[in-house]
Amino acid sequence: MSRGKVAGKKTVSRSQKAGLQFPVGRIARFLKKGRYATRVGAGAPVYLAAVLEYLAAEVLELAGNASRDNKKTRIGPRHMQLAVRNDEELSKLLSSVTIANGGVLPNIHSVLLPKKSGKPALSAADGKE
Q1: Is position 111 within any domain?
Q2: Domain that holds residue 60
Q3: In what residue span(s) does the Core Histone H2A/H2B/H3 domain sit (predicted)?
Q4: Residue 8 has what pLDDT?
Q5: Distance (Å, rounded) from C-alpha 28 to C-alpha 40?
Q6: In the chain, which ranges are continuous DSSP H helix?
Q7: Is 1 a domain residue?
Q8: Most exposed among 84, 92, 96, 120, judged by the fewest C-beta atoms under 10 Å?
């Protein structure tokens, strides 16, 4: 009887088994090294890798749309910022995150916009007299 691996059998990574692109083995290693708990379950790194992959795909999808809207072929920090800040849930999740070279959302306060033609709006000074 021979010991060890059977010849011809290809090793399959945990990422491949789960159908993920993110590295399950590396995330498992980080969870163990980080001392978040004394023991780490077998499903925890798979679940965490799936969540991280989903979030990355979501941000990249929105950033790709933002870069296409600006007629660019490469996603930059500005596109990432626009993607995150224009999405309500991602903006809430990443509210404390600063994206380097991301800039700010274009926003002009309504008071600063020119008055619309038609009826003249009453200003605060006109109303008091």
Answers
A1: no
A2: 14-105
A3: 9-85
A4: 82
A5: 8
A6: 14-18, 24-33, 44-69, 77-86, 88-93, 124-128
A7: no
A8: 96
